[in-house]
Each structure stands twice: as C-alpha cells, then as structure tokens.
Write a structure and sequence with these properties.
The complex is a heterodimer of chains A (261) and B (1105). Chain A is mainly beta. Chain A is built from four helices and 20 strands. In chain A, the strands form three sheets. Chain A has a nine-stranded antiparallel beta sheet. Chain A has a five-stranded antiparallel beta sheet with strand order 5-1-7-8-9, with helices on one face. In chain A, strands 15-14-13-17 form a four-stranded antiparallel beta sheet. The chains are: A mainly beta (261), B alpha+beta (1105). The interface between A and B is large, with 44 and 40 residues. Strand 11 of chain A pairs antiparallel with strand 36 of chain B. Chain B: Its cofactor is [4Fe-4S] cluster.
C-alpha cells in the first residue's frame, strides 16, 4: 500500500506543469524514503531528477510498504491536477501491485472531496542518473531573474554561453541577426536573501547550452524563489529548484560541443 | 500488470522468412550449379558419342587465333552448330529476324535501286531454327514521302519538279562529300487521300511521291518544301505540307514489305547471293550465313500458325565485379575489373548451357562452372571480347548492363588500351561506343540513359524492363529477385569486394560464386516474367523491331499499325508539328457511397471500353467531319458526339482506327481461344504473351489520339471517347436503378454505390453471391442491348464483403464463381503504395484479410491494437519501419526540406563513400528527436540506428504513418469516432519501452542504475538482481530470463543459418549488408538483444549449488 498526503496540491501541480512538455511519460519510484522521478528527454540531451522526501513537512502522511514504480502519462496527470483547487490537500494512493493511481482532493474546509483514478502505464526504460560530483562553480540567483535571462536571450539565438568568473557570471548569445550579453555581479548587499546573486567559484567555467532546454526548465520558476546553477567545464549543467518542505527538482543539460568546421 | 506485456519472442512477420525450416533441402546456388553439370554429363552419355567438335573449327564465327589467351580454355560448346553451307540454287533460307537497321553502302550489281552513289541498305539479323546466325543485306529500298500535288499538275511536270527540288537540296548541303548529283531520285504523281478528316465520297487527291537517295535527305527536303519552294516557270513560291516525312526508314521499310518485328523470313532458293570469303563483296559480319537479296524477293510470314514458333536465340547474361576503393563508387579509369561471369542460355531451354567466370588472378575451381583465370587485366578483357564473338549471342542481358556494365568495360578497356575490346558487334569492324541520351515519357518520367551500338545483338537490360513494367519499392537485384523469385542473394559492399579479391584463391572463388549468381538471376527472372516472349509478341503485334520496345515510347507502335492499315486504303499521314493544346476531362466517377457492405456487391464492367467506343461510333481520323463538310451532308449520315464533335457513320466511310481495333480485339479473342486449347507450356506462354500484347496495343490507340506532343494527335477523337464513356456510365446507373426496383417485382431496390471510368458497382440487396451473380448477368445483358455493337457491358465479379473507402480506394473479396472466392482485391490502399513503410502495408493487409476473408472485424481491431502495442514497446522489426524515397535531385534543388535528402547530406558528412548517390532510393527511419523537431531533422540511416540503439519516434509512426490508413479502413467498419478512440487510446497504448540510445549529449555522463529485474524498482546497491520484495521469487524470475535468453539464442542461430544458406556456404563468415533484406536487420537486432539479455543473466551471479 502506498499513500502520500500532500498539504498543497499547488506544489504537485507546478512540478508536473514544468515537466510535462519535455517528459511525456515517466516512472514515479516510490519507497519509504520518498518519491523520486528520473527521466531523460527523447533526444537524450536533458534529464530531470525530482526528489520529494517523505520526512519533510510537506507530507502530512506518508506510507509506502514496499517499493513500487508508477508509470504515468504526465499530460494526463496534469489534466487531473487541474481539477484540484490550489489549497486542496491531495492524496496519492496505489496498491502494492498497482494498475491504477488514485488522486483524492480535499478542499480546505472539507466540504468537497473528489476522487480520480488514472490507469497506470508500464514503462520499460533504463534508470539513468548523473552521479553527484563537486562542481567548479555554483551560481545561486533569483529564479525569476534566470527565467528572464533565458527568455530574453532566446530572442536572438539558439545557444547561450555561460561564463563564470570571480566578479560574477555572464550570459552571452550570438545569432544571425545580432548578439546579446547579460552580466550579473555578486550582490551580497541586498537585504532579502532570495534576491541575492552569489557565485562560489573554485575554477572559472565557460560553457554553451541550448536555450530551448533552459527555457523549458524555467517553467519550474514558480516552485522556488531561487535557482542554483552548478557547472564544471565539459560536463552537464545542473539547474536545481529547491522545493520548500519537500526536496528539490533538478534538471541536467548536456553542454553544446561546437561543431568542428 | 504482467499480462499486458506479451512475450517479445513472437516478433517479426513470419511471412518474410522464406525458408528457415531445417527440414527442407538446402538448395544453395552452388549446389544448383553442380547439379547442372551432373545433368549435362548424363545427357551427353545418354546421347552416346555425339561426335562433338572438340577442336576450334576454322569456320566463321568460331575461330580464335592460337595465340589468344582464350585458347587454353577453349570449349566446344561455345560455338554455334555448324552445318554445310546452303546451296543458293536449291535451299531456301528461313530464319526469325530479331533486329534490323539501315546503313549507307555502295550499290551491288544485279540489285534494284540506284546504281550510283551511296545507297541505303537494310541489314537484318536473325536465327534459323537450327540455331545458325543469319545476316541479310536487303537492297533497293529507297526512302520517300508525299506532298499534295499543286493544282493542275500534269504528269510531265514531274521531271521539272524533281530537277528543281534536286537542285535546291544539293545547294542546301554544307558539303557534298560523296559528290551526289542525284539527291532526289524520282517524283511520281499518285492518287492518295489524307488520313485526317473526311473528304467526301471522292476524297482521293493527286499527291507527289518524292523519292530521295538516302534517309538523311528527307529532313532537308521536307524543310525546303515546307518553307517555300518554286518550280521555275511552272509554279511560284509556296509552302507544301508534307506527308509521312517523319517516319523512320526502318519502319517505312517494314510497313512496305510487310515485315513485322521478330517474324519469320523466308528467302526462296535462287533469289539470293551467298557471301563467302571468295565472294565480292566479302562478308562483313560474324554471322554463319550472310547474303544479299533484293527488297522484293523475300517472303515475310505473318505470325500465324506454324510461324508463331520461336527460334533458339542465344541469350548471354553477364555481370562484372570491380575492385572499388573504400568510399568511392568505382571509376573506370582507376578501378580494375576483377571478374566477369557469363551464362548463356538457348531460348526455350531451362538452364544455361555455358556457365563460366573470367577472373583476374587465380580462383579455386567451382563445380558446374568453368573458371578462366588471367594474370593480366588487359588480357582478361581481350579474352572476354573474343569469347562474346565466339559465342555470338543474339541477346545480351544482365542487370543494369546498359548503364553500368557495358560502359564500364568499354571505358576500362580504353583506359588499358585494349584496342580490340570494343569489337563486340556482329559487324566485324564496328566499334561499340557510348552515347548519352535522355528519354522522356508520361509513363516513365525523365530518364538518362546510355546508348551503346552493338549491331546485331539486342541489349535487353532486365533493369530497364522492370522499371518500365513494374512499380517496385526497390530495384536492387536482391529486392527484385526476392519479390519475384522469393530468392535472396548476398549483398556485398564495394569495399569488401576488394578485400576478397586481395585474399587468396578461396576468397576469390567466393566472389566468383557471388558474381555467377548475379549473372544467373537475370536469366531466371526473364524466364519467370516471360519478358522475351512477351516483348517478341508485342513486336509481332505492333510490327516494330524488338529493340524499339525498350528504347522508344508507346507512339511508334501505333504509328506502325496505322501506316500498315493506311497503306491498304491509299491513305497518307500528315507530318504533324508538335504543339501543346488544351486538356480534356478524363473518366467519369460516380460519387462513392462509403461503407462496409456485408452483402454481395456486383460489378459490371465495360470490356475494352475505349476501344469499343471508337468502334461503335466509328471515331477515326478518316471519319472526322469539319463544319464545312458537315453542311454538305444529310443529318442521317453523321453523328454528334457528347463533346460536340461530328463524325460520319460507318455506312458512309469505315474508319481505320476502328478497323485496327477490330483486328486487334478479334486477334486477341483467337489467341485466348487457342490458349484454352493449347497444352504445350512454351506455346501457352507465347499465346498468353500475345493476347496481353494485343490488349495493351488496343488500349494504347486511344492514348495515341490524345497525346498532344505525339505524331498525330486528334483531340476531337479522344475527347469524344471520354465523353461517350461518361455518358454510358451515367446511363448504366439510370438503367439499373430504374429497372431493379421493388415496384418491378424485385425483392429490393438496387443501388449503384460507386462507378469509375468503365465499371459500376451495384448493390442489388440480395444476400447470396449466387443471386447477385444472376442479377448481375441479367442486368449486363439488358444494358448491353441498349448500346451499339461492339460495346458490351459484362458482369465480371461480385465483391462480398466489400469495403468502399473512397474514390479509387476499395477492397473486397473477389468472387467469379458463386462457391469460392478467387482472391482479395485491393485498390488504392496502402498495401500497394511505395511511399510508406512496410509496417503499414503489412498491417493493412492483415487487417483487411481478417475483415474480408475472416469476416472478423473484432479480430482485425485486436490485430491492429497488438501491432500498435508492439510498436510502442519497440518490438517491431526495424526493417518494417524503413521508408524509402528516390533521391532525384540534390538538396538545393528541392523546394522544401525532405527527410531523405537531409539524411543523404548528413550521411555524406559521416562517410562520403557509403552515402546514397543521385538516383538511389534512400532508406530511412524516423528517430525520436528533440520535441517539436520536424520530421526531416529526425530521419536516420536504419543501420546507424541499429548500431547505436537510437530510439524510434513511435509517435511519428503512429500519427503520420499508421493513423490515416487505419482509420480509413476501420471507420466504415466500426464507426467514425469509435475507431479513433478504440485504436489509439485504448489500454494497449499504456505499455511502452523507452530505448536508451548510445549517442546523445548526456549519454557520456549518465550512469545506469540497476533496477529490480522482477518489479523494476530502483535498487540500492548495484550488481544484485532483484529487490528484497522479489527475493523470494528470484528463482522464478531467473528461470523466465533464462528462457528468454534461450529463445533469443535460438532465433539468432536460425537467422545466422538463413544468411549462411543465402550466401551458399555454411563455414564462412557472413559479409552481407543488404539494406533490402529483412533478415539482415533482424540478425543485427537479435545480436544486440542477446548481448543485453546476457548481461541481465550475469547479474544473477555465477550459479552455485
């Protein structure tokens, strides 16, 4: 028996919204320690890793008797979640050898209880992860700032070059019709912690990435006030959105290698 | 949940596996060859000591100098049977001619025609029933054409006219090398009538027949006459319309002397002069009998009765192998020819009696085939050329010989300076040269071809025949032989050929066997498809030389027949100037009432619709009425066609097109009647070829009148024909629906549910095939009676059940007898189209079979669901997903980006050598790419996909390939909205397999985490097999996986053996990389699956007990 009661359906809604475009069908792996979701996009360039820890306060109740895997069409799941109010409490429930996943939405004042079942999919795929390493550089910045940078730069070109150095971080784009650059300096002086830009630098990094994917990742902006970018030369970038009281959502994106010619 | 996943071992269409039963005898090509030798040995023993000429005889055609490199390999079978020379005073020469052409030579004394200057001479090649080769020089025939005589022309004016024209033509010549004084030989006053239009009861007019010295003078004479010509003191300058000035000289000759293509010729005793080494002129050809004859002294036998027989033509099929360099298509000036294999068969026999292979460097012996090894390439080429002359084949065949093998050999010989090589023709000193030509027709599109002159030997390239007559997915020899013979062959890449050549005599032997097979297959295919017989019959029916059928379009055949008929009635054909005109509407289509009909549907057809309309209404050039003519005639003498044109009735003047058609159709009836009586299989083939040729010819007459860039288009005829056709279909519908009603005593109201051009589909409402047939026959008879003779509506078949999808798209079970069905008939459905993947065709086909034959729509739905599920789970064989398109232009020339063009460009970047070239058909699959990417970005080479385990874009195949065809056939059966939901949203779509590619940006960094083999949950520590929940059933899981492994191993073993069988050797590695072969893809895939499965088993650890 698996049962997880989340206090805020809006969190789950936002997670699924941010994933469903790049990742059509995915397996939720549920164990006593929590729920994880790991999937690679169809072109094998981006990977997402979602972790919702069972011991965090976001879950009012959490129970998982044995490890189970729930294959879900995220498009369908998003439609179901749209039926829930933002403040509803959502419960996910499945049997030990499940065929269906049940969603129960309780409105705040318990006047209305709705229940939806969806058929599960059986998705046979290899479980791929990117091993944790020490990154040369970790940039922390407001998530809306990152979203704005990506959307602005994508007007001009397909790929962004992220250049991390002592003073801060530069985002540069060059396209057929023009080029653009945005410099962010470390801002420790700002009062609110979430508005700060900090750069932890061991080694400078300069690396290009496809903007199309970064823009897709920024759909998760509303999940968190801040975003962490972890970079090492010639390895995938990690874009991490912490989820308060739950865990985090991470995206990995392969670096763009310049074509030889 | 497990029940959803079907065991993956049951993949692949079993129909594709031709022979993988272990029980049946391995019939490999090598054993076939060996068997041939055995049979021959027995035969020669049985026929006792049949004194074979064992030495190279001195007789003509079979001699080679002792110094020749070919001499050590001399084989008495090579030469033609030698008979004592005929006695011109006693022996008639009877032979079947196969080709004729003209050349310009000097006149010979005693022969008719001009006695001075260059004269055109026809040379005709043929074979006697005894297999002797014959060449005739036919003298005295001169080219001519007509112009209408000026008014008040008197016979004595002929001389002036001739002199004036002669003067102009001579002056017009740039240089008069041959010092011709008489370009125009004669001008005669004759009475003829133009074929075009009706000219009243006394239509004959005076014409001038202008005879010129040789064919090349026709064009300038015509030009001068058309642009303006005057006869001094008699006629002022005026332009003359010319008649029959655009007829090939050979056709002119054949029409005037009643020679047909491939017919039998008889040259009576005492009418010819034999050429011999002592005669003057001496023989110029390799033929055993060479003679001179006058053009009016031979007998040409029409192809009737005894003269339908076929002489034992020698057909040489050959194939060459070149040592290509890696990544480059062989070029004749750099890459050597390393092997040439030859097979010679006598027409009518089953097996080739000469089988050999010329190899560069040594080669181990091959049972059943002679091996001729040469250490020097130039020697080999020279010897091969000598071999061709000794064997003296009448027909050369092979696969793509005209555009590849022959030009390559000629160019290679030139590069190696083998000066005697191009002497391949029957004319002793004629050198074969290569010319380029483009050929364009509506039927074939534009094609670039090479033209090589090899006089006396017909080049009968199988590839060209197939491209003309059959629409195929792939024209590679491998695919073609699989399609027609269900026989696979190895496909060895160019680069591997070089490796084999550079190996030892065993590897070269291997190559030689491969090469021999490539020479054998065209013969097998020619026999199976009866190409030679059918083309010969077509030549006989239409009266054109055999090679014209391959090198010329459809029109020449009709022109030949038209001229023959016109000659009988003193009609002449105007030389038409090519100009484009307006288009006219085609056949009529009654809007289909779509649906799935579970009751019999009768089909009524107009047999030979267009020809019979032309006959019934006397539509012809000669009966066409101009408005001015019409005013002079009474209303009962002509008819108005539905398109508003006027033609006289046959009682006034019978048209010649209806006559030609009448002859063709009655000849066809006779042939069909004979066919029924005939028992001899070879003669049956001939007759069947004949009736087919007659049918095609009859139908092409209509096309000829509508061909606007043709020799003699006549839109009045063609548009009247289609207008009548439309009217008749409409009338038929009315008659059926008015007569077969409940009011008139029938059980149901009949309904015409569909009609197209020459057929209507009728729902009589009855429940059994027998009743439907009864009514169909009755209706056909009743309606036929309302139309003029010979238009006939025939009841042909009943479809039951019948699935009508749309215009020109339907399928049904075909009944011609009430008790059992004949076949499943599909029109316009994806089963036959070439622009989608085989999965679609196979799936639609099996669904239709279930719906129509099994009458099990439920089963069909289940099958479709299962296939969709297989697709989502990556269980479909990749060969099923390959789409092929022809690369006709380079990327820049295409307006939009196209998948196959983009792929070809990408492949060129990866490896320029193996990338597809212009004109190749490019195979590709659509792979999963970045979301939102266009299909052309996602096309990929199937082999690359296999090697790198790249995931397929299942969504694309579902939405763009399967969806529409499936909905089309299922919507009429299970309802419009339901079909979509049932097929594409059901439970079967919930199981998917995601393939992990070897390439892709993240793959270099990602690490695989183990999941439980039992329940797929992630495992905490790697290298264990199952999670703790599944631990108690671990043995069960292990067993399941081992069974799976065994199944894969067995499958791999079977596929491997299949390929070994195909290559004809069980103890050699497999080299084949045929992209057309489903086995190849399966073998690759199962190899990969096996490795993966093995890894899974290893995770259970070493078994300990």
């Amino acid at each position: 028996m698996f049962e997880a009661k989340m206090l805020q359906s809006s969190v789950l809604k936002k997670i699924i919204e941010s994933l469903k475009d790049l990742f059509a069908d995915a397996n939720f792996d549920c164990s006593s320690s929590g729920i994880t979701l790991q999937d690679m996009d169809s072109s094998h360039v981006a990977l997402c890793y979602l972790k919702l820890r069972s011991d965090e306060e976001g879950f009012e109740d959490y129970r998982c008797d044995r490890n189970i895997t729930l294959g879900v069409n995220l498009g369908l799941m998003s439609k179901i979640l749209k039926c829930a109010g933002n403040d509803d409490v959502v419960t996910l429930r499945a049997e030990d050898e499940p065929n269906i996943l049940t969603f129960i939405f309780d409105s705040k004042n318990s006047e209305r209880v709705s229940k939806y079942d969806i058929k599960l999919m059986e998705i046979d795929s290899e479980l791929l992860g990117i091993p944790d390493t020490d990154y040369s550089c970790v940039v922390k910045m407001p998530s809306h700032e990152f979203q704005r940078i990506c959307s602005n730069l994508s007007q001009l070109g397909d790929s962004v070059t992220i250049d991390c150095h002592k003073e801060g971080v530069d985002f540069k784009v060059a396209g057929e019709q023009g080029s653009g650059a945005i410099k962010l300096k470390q801002t420790t002086s700002v009062d609110k912690e979430e508005d700060q830009v900090t750069v932890q630098l061991n080694e400078p990094v300069t690396q290009s990435f496809a903007l199309k994917f970064l823009c897709a990742f920024t759909k998760a902006t509303s999940l968190s006030d801040t975003v962490n970018l972890s970079l090492t030369q010639d390895t995938p970038v990690v874009v991490e959105y912490p989820i308060a009281q739950h865990g985090y959502l991470r995206f990995y994106l392969a670096p763009k290698i310049e074509e030889e010619n | 949940m497990d029940s959803k996943r079907k065991p993956p071992m049951s993949t692949g269409p079993s129909a594709k596996r031709a022979r993988n039963d272990f029980e049946d005898d391995p019939s490999t090509f090598e054993e076939e060859l060996a068997l041939l030798e055995k049979v021959e040995a027995e035969m020669s023993q049985a026929s006792s000591v049949g004194s074979q000429q064992s030495t190279p005889p001195g007789s003509r055609g079979g001699s080679i100098p002792a110094s020749s490199k070919l001499a050590p390999y001399w084989n008495p079978k090579w030469i033609r049977p030698s008979l004592p020379p005929p006695d011109p005073s006693k022996d008639a020469i009877v032979f079947q001619q196969i080709d004729l052409e003209h050349y310009i030579g000097s006149p010979i004394r005693g022969m008719p025609g001009s006695t001075v200057g260059p004269v055109p001479i026809i040379r005709m090649f043929g074979i006697t029933m005894e297999g002797q080769s014959v060449m005739c020089h036919i003298h005295g025939f001169t080219p001519y054409f007509y112009v209408p005589a000026p008014e008040n022309f008197r016979p004595e004016h002929c001389r002036h006219f001739k002199d004036a024209l002669n003067h102009m033509v001579i002056n017009d010549m740039r240089s008069n090398k041959d010092n011709i004084s008489q370009a125009v030989l004669a001008v005669e006053l004759v009475t003829k009538e133009s074929i075009y239009g009706y000219h009243g009861p006394n239509g004959m007019r005076p014409f001038l027949k202008i005879t010129v010295a040789y064919p090349k003078l026709i064009a300038p004479s015509k030009r001068l006459l058309e642009s303006g010509f005057a006869v001094p003191n008699l006629y002022p300058v005026r332009g003359y319309q010319t008649f029959e000035s655009n007829i090939d000289f050979e056709i002119r000759f054949m029409v005037d002397t009643d020679v047909l293509g491939c017919n039998w010729m008889e040259i009576p005793a005492d009418q010819y002069r034999l050429r011999s080494s002592s005669s003057i002129p001496a023989p110029v050809s390799q033929c055993q009998i060479e003679l001179d004859v006058a053009y009016d002294r031979f007998v040409s036998h029409p192809a009737d009765g005894e003269w339908q027989k076929v002489a034992p033509f020698r057909i040489l099929s050959f194939d060459i192998e070149c040592a290509g360099r890696r990544g480059v298509f062989p070029e004749a000036n750099k890459d050597s020819v390393i092997q040439i294999s030859n097979m010679v068969i006598r027409q009518g026999e089953r097996d080739p009696f000469i089988r050999n292979v010329f190899t560069l460097n040594t080669c181990a012996p091959i049972v059943g085939s002679q091996v001729l090894s040469f250490s020097n390439e130039a020697d080999m080429l020279k010897a091969w050329s000598e071999f061709v002359n000794v064997v003296d084949p009448d027909i050369l065949t092979g696969y793509n010989i005209v555009n590849f093998d022959i030009p390559y050999l000629i160019n290679r010989a030139a590069a190696l300076k083998v000066s005697t090589f191009p002497l391949l023709a029957r004319i002793k000193d004629s050198r074969s040269v290569i010319k380029e030509s483009t050929f364009q027709s509506k039927q074939m599109g534009k094609r670039e071809n090479k033209v090589i002159n090899i006089e006396g030997r017909v080049q009968f390239d199988l590839l060209q025949i197939l491209q003309r007559d059959y629409k195929l997915r792939s024209y590679r020899l491998n695919a073609v032989s699989y399609h027609f013979l269900q026989e696979q062959k190895e496909d060895v890449q160019h680069s591997i050929i070089t490796d084999l050549q550079n190996g030892n005599d065993q590897t070269r032997r291997r190559l030689a066997v491969y090469c021999l097979k490539d020479a054998m297959l065209p013969l097998r295919l020619l026999d199976k498809l009866m190409c030679i017989i059918n083309y010969m019959e077509m030549a006989r029916v239409t009266g054109v030389p055999l090679p014209y059928l391959l090198t010329r379009g459809q029109q020449i055949k009709v022109v030949s027949q038209l001229l023959r008929k016109a000659k009988e009635q003193d009609l002449v054909m105007p030389a038409h100037k090519v100009e484009a005109g307006e288009d006219y509407t085609g056949g009529y289509v009654i809007d289909p009432t779509r649906g799935y009909y579970k009751i019999p549907i009768a089909t009524l057809d107009f047999s030979s619709l267009y020809p019979s309309i032309m006959q019934a209404h006397n539509l012809c050039y000669t009966s066409l009425l101009s408005p001015s003519q019409r005013e002079k005639m009474s209303a009962d003498e002509f008819i108005k066609t539905p398109s508003g044109n006027y033609f006289v009735k046959s009682s006034i003047r019978k048209g010649i097109l209806p006559e030609i058609l009448g002859d063709l159709l009655s000849a066809r009836k006779r042939a069909k009647a004979d066919l029924k009586k005939e028992t001899d299989p070879l003669r049956k083939k001939v007759l069947d070829g004949r009736q087919l040729a007659l049918k095609i010819s009859a139908n092409s007459v209509y096309g000829f009148t509508g061909a606007q860039v043709g020799k003699l288009p006549c839109l009045e005829i063609s548009q009247s024909v289609t207008a009548f056709g439309r009217q008749m279909i409409e009338t038929t519908r009315q008659l059926v629906q008015d007569n077969y009603t409940i009011e008139k005593g029938y059980k149901h109201n009949a309904e015409v549910i569909y009609g197209d051009t020459d057929s209507v589909m009728v729902k009589f409402g009855v429940d059994t095939v027998a009743e439907s047939m009864e009514l169909g026959k009755e209706a056909a008879q009743m309606i036929s009676d309302t139309f003029p003779h010979p238009i006939k509506l025939e009841f042909e078949k009943v479809y039951y059940p019948y699935l009508l999808i749309n215009k020109k798209r339907y399928a049904g079970l075909f009944y011609s007898r009430p008790d059992t069905y004949d076949k499943m008939d599909c029109k316009g459905i994806e089963t036959v189209r070439r622009d989608n993947c085989p999965l679609v065709a196979n799936m639609i086909n099996s669904c239709l079979q279930k719906i129509l034959i099994g009458r099990d729509p439920e089963g069909a739905v289940d099958h479709a669901k299962q296939t969709i599920s297989d697709l989502l789970c990556n269980r479909i064989d990749i060969s099923q997903l390959v789409i092929t398109k022809e690369l006709t232009k380079t990327g820049e020339e295409y307006a939009g980006k196209q998948a196959h063009v983009e792929l070809a460009a990408r492949m060129r970047k990866r490896d320029p050598g193996s990338a597809p070239a212009l004109g190749d058909r490019v195979p590709y699959v659509i792979i999963a790419g970045v979301k939102g990417a266009a299909a052309f970005e996602k096309s990929e080479d199937p082999i690359y996909v296999l090697e790198n385990n790249i995931p397929i874009d299942t969504r694309y195949y579902l939405d763009n390939q399967l969806k529409m065809p499936l909905l089309r056939i299922f919507e009429p059966v299970i309802g419009e909205h339901k079909a979509q939901a049932v097929l594409f949203k059901g439970e079967h779509t919930l199981t998917k397999t995601k393939v992990t590619s070897k390439i892709g940006g993240l793959m270099a960094f990602a690490k695989k985490r183990s999941t439980c083999i039992g329940c797929k949950t992630p495992l905490d520590k790697d290298n264990s097999a199952v999670c703790k929940h599944c631990k108690n059933i671990e043995t069960e899981i292990y067993q399941k996986e081992v069974i799976h492994l065994n199944a894969l191993e067995e499958k791999f073993g079977r596929l491997w053996t299949q390929c070994q069988r195909c290559q004809g050797s069980l103890h050699e590695d497999i080299l084949c990389t045929s992209r057309d072969c489903p086995i190849f893809y399966m073998r690759k895939k199962v190899q990969k699956d096996l490795a993966d499965q093995d890894a899974i088993i290893k995770r259970f650890g070493v078994p300990v007990w």
